Amino acid sequence: MGYRGRRSGTRRHDEAMLGEARRTRFWQAVGGTAAVVAIVLTAVFWLLDQEAPSASITLAQTPNNAVVPRPVSTFGTPPAYTPDTGRQESHCEEWESWIDQIGGAMLSPARLLVASPAETASTITDVRVRVFRRYRPSEPTLVRCVYGAGGEEPHYLYVNLERPATAARLTSIDRRRDIRIPEGFFGVAAGRTESIAVLPRGADRHFYEWGLELTVTVDRRQETFPIGTRERPLRSWFGAAPTGVDYDMITRRWTARR
After folding, report:
1. pTM of the model
2. pLDDT digits 0-9 by tens, 163-211
3. Which of 77, 131, 197, 239 is most open to solvent, judged by the fewest CB atoms within 10 Å of its CB?
4. Residues 180 and 219: beta-carbon distance below 8 Å
């Protein structure tokens, strides 16, 4: 009887060990299957995201005269340009990066080039204004580098830097479109690019550093586009133009210009 007892105990032990091994293999199989499923789903979502149509917004600005919030005595020597005969028609392109480096606000409006993907339209559904800095410079200077008039844009976006929460207003030059965002929206047809000039408002004789955040919907997906950051802001000056100066490459000195 003792022998039978040991045999029975051994059998139960073997069966328990076999059951544990089966359970271990089962959970290993489940874990392996879950890992494979997770990898497959990740790849699927990645491919879907890669294939999803997307809009684009590009910031553009025609180089122009600029207000710099400090006196000309702090400018130093600007980049060289080839002097024109007589009136020195334009050398703003040569100075575009330098004006940005010294914190100048160009007098030409910033332009947003909003492009829809080829297969579907896009819609601007929200515009938010971010004011990073607002101040009144004690001795601003107008840097002159062009002596002519600018052109017109097909669409204009009006924003209020004194009251950033105010709804932005978007209108066309022919006044056929006049909407407030986010109450309304601005659509761009599939495969098209629309140019929008941004026209801010602010307090007289004040300098602003600011940015925009646009929400665009494409194929029921929302995308957010920041335009201007605290480190690289848009800049604006409001009020009468201060004293104008230009750098004469022949005499190599700053001279007053009207």
Report:
1. 0.77
2. 999 999 999 877 677 899 988 999 999 999 999 999 999 999 999 999 9
3. 77
4. no
